[in-house]
Structure formats: structure tokens, C-alpha cells
Amino acid sequence: MKSKKRLEKFTIGVIGFVIAIIFFFPIFWMFLTSFKTEVGAFSIPPEFLFKPVLTAYQAVFARGDVQKYFINTIISSFGSTLIALIVAIPASYSLAFLKPKGRNFTLLWIISTKMMPPVGVLIPIYIVYTNLGLIDNIWGLTAIYVMMNLPIMVWLLFDTFSNIPLEILEAAKIDGASTYKLITNVLLPISKSGIWSASLLSVILAWNEGFWCVNLTNVNAATLGVFISSFKAGEGLYWAKMSAISTLAVIPVIILGWIVQTQIVRGLTFGALKE
Amino acid sequence: MPSNNNAAERKSFQRKSVKSTSYLFLLPTIAYLFIWMVIPLSMTIYYSFQKYNILLPYIHGFNGVTNYYQVFISSDFQASVINTLILVGVSLLFTIVLGILIALIYSTDFWGKNFARTLFITPFFAMPIVNGLLWKNMILNPTYGLSAWFERMIGISPISWLGSFPLLSIIIIVVWEWLPFSVLIFLTALQSVPETIIEAARIDGAGKLSEFFYIILPNIFQTIYVVLMLETMFFISIFAEIFVTTSGGPGLASTNLPYYIYLQGFFAWNVGKASAAAVITVIIANIIVLFFANFLSKKLKFGGE
Amino acid sequence: MKWVLLMVFVLLVAIGISSIAAVTTITIATVANPDMVIMQALSPYFEALHPNIKLNWVILPENELRQKVTTDIAVHGGAYNVVTIGDYEVPLWAKNGWLVPFTSLPATYDEGDLISSIKDSLSYKGTLYALPFYGESSMIYYRKDLFAKAGLVMPEHPTWNQIETFAKILNDPSHGVYGIVLRGEPGWGENMAPIDTVINAFGGEWFNMQWQPQLTSPAFEKAVNFYVNLDRKYGPPGVTSMGFTECETFFAGGHAAMWYDATVAAGYLSDPKTSSVASDVGFAFAPSDVKKNTGWLWSWALAIPSSIPASSEKSEAARTFILWATSKQYIKLVAEKYGWLLVPPGTRYSTYENPNYLKVASAFALITEESIDNADILHPTVNPVPYIGIQYVDIPEFEAIGTQVGQYIAAALAGTQSVETALQQSQDYVLNIMKEAGYIK
Question: What is the number of structural domains in chain A?
């Protein structure tokens, strides 16, 4: 009986690893390709064992503009997260504790904006941005990412705040703390983990975004996604270089994702799921 | 989720607070979403009734429902609606069914379980643009790609996946990207299935299958609902994966609604028609949302009004 | 004394400020092709000649560039002062009043030296609206070594039937060499460019004189069938994802015996640094059938959007830059810095009279020049047509039409549907667009 159970466990383990390897392999293959020469990347049959070289990475950095794409990606993802946090905290506070009239409707409306396909507003935003000179402007893109992440942020913070025992806030209030102090000194410290996971999710979503950046930027405000997508057309195919820049672009988020994988579930479901 | 016993206290808290503060605090969020969402959406609706082609600046004016009519009768639009439904439906089916099965595997204790799960979820955290290019080039390229190598090895001539099976290829990429998402959620849900019930069932001699169908499935039913709703939202707007791989082709074989609108807007330059198609897409998306809204408002009931 | 010093100081500051203000920055939007990358690399030479002008570059792949430049100009965004556009856009945009005309060019520019077919294609009602940076036609590239081994001879002016015979003989996929490689990636500037020249060669056309689409005419159908069969039978798998770049890489890697494409690839294929077949590549004119001179005509040209007033400093600076980048002196500068093989071809007669250029490029230079010279955008087809353009139709709707028909034909190339179905769908699609746009009542 026991050995049968162990065998079963072993089989499941093997299946688990096989699935994991299948899913991980494409990313791993990209990682390998980034250490090949351009000729090696195109060899038939594909090379599994080869002498790794750094030429692709050197070529990527030699262009001199890669830093710019990284900086733009960092500004737009972290900047939008920060702005969304600042805008969302009072809103979530109000929704969770002050309960304005029509709260449920407001919450539903906020999340419903998330359910609209972005393509529905692309053309007006494009035209308005062109007129305002916000095309290819990093703050124009950041503003869009705020719009994209604000509803999620409000919901997650609302969910976090709703779980906070009221006694704590009441006590602070009796001590005569102002609303500002109440939020910064009491509410935020005790909801730290919820704020962290909401922020990380927002950063990841903005970092990986692939619709707005392609349509609203070209060079000055281009993010890593825009730069990488330019490899789909251009003079000559450069798989090693493409793999090198892609590897650099995805590694920070993959590692972040690995670390927060379980906490992120709550964020991904907008808190719509019991834990 | 908060319990209801807080409700009374919350009410007392509310009474002490100034009503206007609650609106003031909400204002930035609502104003922001209004400026960036509601106004552009209204403009889309406005354009959808206008004759507006970027390349023909001398022709403009009210166009009635002509744009809508032209969109509805065009076979490209019909094809892109069907492709969208297939893309969303099949991807949902696979991510949910396989998601539950794989979650069951990773909820079993085995050596290196966390490590295996960590590797497995990686695709979800990579950029869709990178994923698309990676699959298009290094994996599915019929000359140099891994699939071609594998197909030659098993003795068949290399298949041009993106050429011959474009929608299927996109679905494979999407499922590869999103399966980790559903697995992560189902894993959480499975943990919440009370161990005691399962034990009791085992003692009663229930088989694995009946254990799954009578105990596990009912317990994660709500989760399936959540996954369905969220994934539908994301799958309806898939763009980057198509943009970098097939550009919607060959023919219209992999053109979905967002890509169709993109083509109308930025290749045909027909802002009127593109806007009409966008409005229709928003309506379709909202019908699905209405279907789920019932569920969401139930979740909101806890606070009481 | 103090006062004088102070006044001098103020004056100096004022001069300093005004000289800073005198620097005009212009933004140039251009295509990510090698010739344009060289142009960007050489911009310090321009800035040294004109210290009061600073250049700011926006370099993008063709499709993205077209999308961004078109919207910016259409809504008068004014983000770009110099734009890179082609033969297709120039007359259309000039008609919309979006471009600043080039009138009274200085004598040193030598307008008469511009190849006349190129000049005509960049004019609207007899006025130039853009100046050509480089020009191209299309031709056949072939592997002299493989032809010699098989005992075949490529004529200078091959027919499509001969090309098919050669492809059949030389097709050897088991050794990794395909008979021919042709563009399959959908797009009016991708697969439709070579396909259009085959359609013209076979006597077909897009529209008759009444603007009725002719996509199901026997000649059109024969031509598309021919192209699809040629590519499917003797071409590599997955052609629907092969555009110019992919084909170029493929041929330069030695995987194909022939390639029919833009003349501008000749330099790349002849350069041992980029091509493994540099010493074996041969050149021939675009293949013909019932029509001769089937090579296409395209030029990338520089133009000034009219969203900024023509009299403004920026427009003046933009004009100065364009005159420099399309001049004889610029061609000489590229030759000095990069060698004659890499000068932008196909714009000036003087390039083809230059002995230094002919020394390195003789194998393809004359074919290129003659193809460009003979290309007749006003009479592209056997039957009379109401439109101009060889590998495009110069109407605003063509961008959508060409892209969509390119998609339908790509489906036939992928084998997911027959050529007949693809063309019927295309005909319906085009008919619908032409009705919507009011060409047909």
C-alpha cells in the first residue's frame, strides 16, 4: 500500500517536472540563443552545445540607446504605479471607510472601465495626443498606464483596507489624528503587504504592456517592448541580438514574478477570490 | 474578505466622518478615469457616425449609420468576430481544463514541487511581445526553428505553423502564456478545499474520479467562474501576440477584433469605420461583463448599504 | 567705466542668448534601411557645414514609420520637419496640400541630373514635392556557380517561363538549396510588389478604365497562379513570413538559386561581409512575359510637411538638409567614408557615369539604371488603365486594398485556400471598397 503510494507520488513528480520543463524551455532557449553568434543562431540543426559568446550583448550595448529604452520602461512602469497609488489610496480609503452614497455602483463602474478593450479608445487618444504633442512622450505613455492600472489598484487597496479592524482607526481618531495622519501613520503601515503586492502587480503589468507603447511611442519615449518589436521587421535577421535584449528585458520581471508568485494571485483576481 | 461583524462599527465610523471628504477623496480617481476613458470613448462613438478618412481630408461630415452598416456586411469583420470567439473560447477551454489538471499535480507533495512550479509559471511573467517573437522565430520558423528540427527528426517535412495553422499557433502561444495564470489561481483554490472532507471521502472508499467530481470540482466552482471572467477580459483584447507574429494573416485567418480595428484605423485610415468596429467590440465585451456583473455585485454585498 | 563694462557684458550675454536661439533643431523621420543609417551616421558633417542647424533622428521600420508619419501629417501634429516617403505617397499627399513644394532649386543642385522617371514619380502637376534619396527597380539575382554546374545560362532578359524551368532544375531541398525564393509576407509593399510586376508582365491590371476591379480576369488569375505555384513548388516552406529582409538573408546564406526582388539588395549581396555568395551572385533584368520592361519603380524621398509654415526657420532648415542629403556632394561623401558600393543608388545620372562607381558596381549598375530608366509609371500595363504606378495603384485606398489582397494571396501561398478563392475574395473586397469610396456608382 505504502510503496504504491510512493510510486504514485513519484509518477506525479515526474509529470510535474516534465510539464515544468516544457513550459520553461522556450524562455530557456531564448536565453541560450542570446549567447550564440548570429551564425550559430541560424544553424541547422539547432546547436544545443556550443561555446557561449557575449558578442550579442556587446552589440546590443554598443548601440548606445538601450539604456534609453530601459530608462523609459522604468519611468513608465514605476512612475505610473506611483501615481496610481497616490490617486487610489484616498479613493480606496473613502470607499472602504467613509462609504459614500452609490459606493457599489462606483466600485462596479471603476472595474468596468477595465473591461473595455483598449482598442476602443485608441483612435481618439491617438488623435488627441498627436495634437497635444504627447505622441512619443514618456509622460503621455505613463498617463495611459495610470489609466490601465488605476482600477486594479483601487480594487486591491479597497480589498486590503476592508480587512483592517476598525478599532485601530477608531483609536487613532479618538487621539485626535487628522485624516492625513490617520492614513499615513496608521493605515498605510498596517496595510503594507497589500500595498506591496498591488504595486508589484501594477509594475509588472505596465512593464509587459504591448499595445499602447507600440502605438503611442516611436523613438524618444520608446520602451523595451517597442524596441524589441522592431526586430519583427528590419534589415537582416538578428536572433542572437534579439534574444539578448529580450533576455535583459524579461529577467527583472521574471525574477520578481518568481518571488511574489503566490501573493500575486490575489492581485490577479482583483481580490475577487478567497484565500 | 471582511466579515459582516464589522458592519455596525463601520457605520459608526462613517457617521463621524464628513460626507464631503468621501467624495473629495474619490474625485481624483473618477476624474482621471473620466478624462482618459469616458471622454475618448465618447469621441469614438462620435467618430463612428462621421465620414472620416485620414487620407481624404476634404471629405468629412455626418455619415449616419453607414459605417456600422459597412462594418456589419463586410466579410472581414464577420471573420474577425468568428476568430475572436474561437480564440477566446478555445484558449479558455484549454487554460481551464489543463489548468485544473496541472494545479492538481502541483498540489500534490513531491520532491522539488516548488521549484517545478516556479519554472512552470515563468511564461506568464515574460512580455507578450517577446513571447510572440520568440515563438515566431526560434520555435516555429520552418527553416531554422526548433519545431522544424523536431519535425525533420521524426521524418516529416517541416510545417509552416504560422502559415498553415495561424490561429492554432496563436492559441498555442496564448495558452502557453496564460496557463500559469489559471494554475496559480486554481492552486490557491485547491488549498482551500477542506482536507477533512477529502479524508472522509477516502475513508468511504471514493475513487479518485468521484473524489474529483463530487468534492473538488464543486469546491472550486466559484474559482472557475473568476478565471473565466478575467481571462475573457484579457483574451478579448489580445493584440501584441498577433501583431508580432502573423499580422492577422494569412488571409484573415488570425485577425481578431482588436487587430481588425487596427487595420481599419492605421492601414485603411478609415477612422469612421474603425470607430464603429471599436464601438461594437466594446458592446460585445460589455455583454460578457454584464453576464459576470451579477457575480461581482454579489461580492459587493458584504458591506451592506 | 563700470557702466561701459556692464553694457559690454549685457551685450555679450544678449549675443550669446541670440546665438543659442539661432540653433534650429529639426526632426527627421526615416526608414531603418542601411542607406538611411549611413545618412544618420554622416549627420555630423552636415552639422559642421551648418552650425545653426541641429538634427534629431527618428528611425523606424517601414510600416511603423508610414503609420506614424501619416497620422502626424494628417492631423497637423508637426512632430517631424523632414519625412521619408515614397512614390506612392508623394502625389497623394501633395494633392492634400500636406507637402511643401520644391521650387527654384539652386543651380548647384543640378536638377537635370536627377533620373527623369524618378523625378516624374515625385512630382504632382509638374512640381517636385520630394527629392529622391535612393531609387530602385527590381531584378533577378541568381547563383552563377549553380547555373554553371547545371549547364544553364541565365539570359540578360529572362522570361518568367524560363525562370520556372531553371527553378525546377535547380530545386534541391535535400541539400538545402531551393529553386527560387520570392516574398510571401502580406503587405502592399511586401508580397504585392513582386506579384504586381508579374501581373503586369502577364497582361493583367488592377482596374479597367471604369475603375472596375479586374482581379478575376484571366491574365490576373494566370499571373497569381504562376507566382503561387512557383513559390510553393520550388520555394522554401513558410514563405508567408518572408518579406524582403528574410528573403535577402535566405539568399545571402546560399539557400536559394534565384531571387526576384529590389535592385537595392545588389550591394548587400555583393559584399563578402554580409553575403556568403558574394562572388557567385549574378544579375538579370526583371523577367517578362507578354509585357517587356516589367521592373518596378520606387524611390525613398525626403519631403517637408506643410504643418509648419513654409517660411519658418524650421522649414528653411529642413530644405537645407534635404538639398544636402540628396546632392552629388553627399554621394561623394558616402563614397569617401564607406566606399562606392554603398552609395545611395538610382537617383542621379552622374552616379552611373562615375568610373569609380562602375568599377565596383558594373555587374548590376547598368541593369539598375536601365530598369529605372525604362520603368513607366504612367503606362504600367498592357491595357490602358486609369491609374499610375507599377507595383502599386496611386489612390489613397490602395494601402488597405494592397494589404488585404496581399493577405488573401498569402493564404493561397500557405496552401490554406486556392488561388481562385483568394482572388474571388479579393475581387469582392476591392469592389466593396471602390463602391464605398465612390469610384463606382
Answer: 2
Closest CB to B32 among A9, A87, A98? A87
Q: What residues contact residue B215 under an 8 Å CB cut-off, 6+ apart?
A: B193, B197, B198, B201, B206
Rounded distance, CA C74 to CA C66, Å? 12
Both A21 and A140 in one domain: the answer is no
pLDDT tens column, C219-275: 999 999 999 999 999 999 888 888 888 898 889 989 999 999 999 899 889 888 878
Interface mutation vs chain A, best among B19, B26, B87, B232, most A CBs within 10 Å: B26
Q: Which residue of B has its CA nearest to C250?
A: B143
Pull the grid cell for residue A166. 476598525
Tens digit of each residue's pLDDT (9 = 90 or more) over C259-288: 999 998 998 898 888 788 999 999 999 999
The strand ranges marked E within C158-314 are 258-262, 281-285, 298-303
**From start to end of B97-189, where are the E strands?**
none
Return the partners of chain C (3 or more C-beta pairs < 8 Å).
Answer: A, B
Give the pLDDT band of residue C311 (cuts 50, 70, 90): confident
Of C309, C317, C284, C419, the closest CA to residue C26 belongs to C317
CATH number of the domain enclosing A248: 1.10.3720.10
Q: DSSP string spanning C317-358?
A: HHHHHHHHHTSHHHHHHHHHHH-GGGSPPSSBHHHHH-HHHH
How many CB atoms within 10 Å of residue A11? 12
pLDDT of B302 above 50: no
* CB contact residues (below 8 A), chain A span 119-158, against chain B: 119-125, 127-128, 143-144, 146-147, 150-151, 154
Compute the count of residue pairs across chains B and C with CB atoms less than 8 Å apart: 109
Cell 544553424 locates to A43
Measure the CA dihedral C195/C196/C197/C202, to 10°: 90
User: Is the minimum CB–CB distance between A64 and chain C shorter than 8 Å?
Assistant: no
Write down the ipTM of this complex: 0.88
CB contact under 8 A, B265 and A224: no
B147 touches C: beta carbon within 8 Å: no
Beta-carbon contacts of B104 under 8 Å, excluding residues fewer than 6 positions away, are B190, B212, B216
- The Cα–Cα gap between B243 and B208 comes to 44
Q: Same structural domain for residues A105 and A226?
A: yes
CA C62 to chain centre: 10
Q: Hey, where are the domains in chain B? A: 48-303
The CATH classification of domain B48-303, taken from the options 3.30.70.20, 1.10.3720.10, 1.25.40.340, 3.40.50.300: 1.10.3720.10
